[in-house]
Design a protein that fits this description.
This protein is α+β, with helices and mostly antiparallel strands and 68 residues long. The chain is built from four helices and two strands; from the N terminus they run H-H-E-E-H-H. The protein has one domain. A hairpin with a 2-residue loop joins strand 1 and strand 2.
């Protein structure tokens, strides 16, 4: 399903809001990421930047949890 969505996104150049608690899936499917905590934006930016160089301790904690 994710591969299909990614292919369609590339082919038709559309924008979508994708909401998930799984940051690895969000990183795969998204160009930009917004990380929220308790209803407030904790961090936002390009997907690779947020995923590989998180500025927020909360984002670092989320990513470290999926890399274990």
């Amino acid at each position: 399903m994710l591969n299909l969505l990614s292919d369609l996104k590339k082919e038709f150049h559309f924008t979508a809001v994708f909401i998930s608690h799984d940051l690895s899936v969000v990183h795969y499917i998204s160009d930009r990421i917004i990380v929220m905590k308790e209803g407030k934006i904790e961090e936002e930016g390009k997907a690779d930047q947020v995923f590989h160089h998180p500025a927020s301790p909360y984002t670092r904690q989320l990513i470290s949890a999926i890399l274990k």
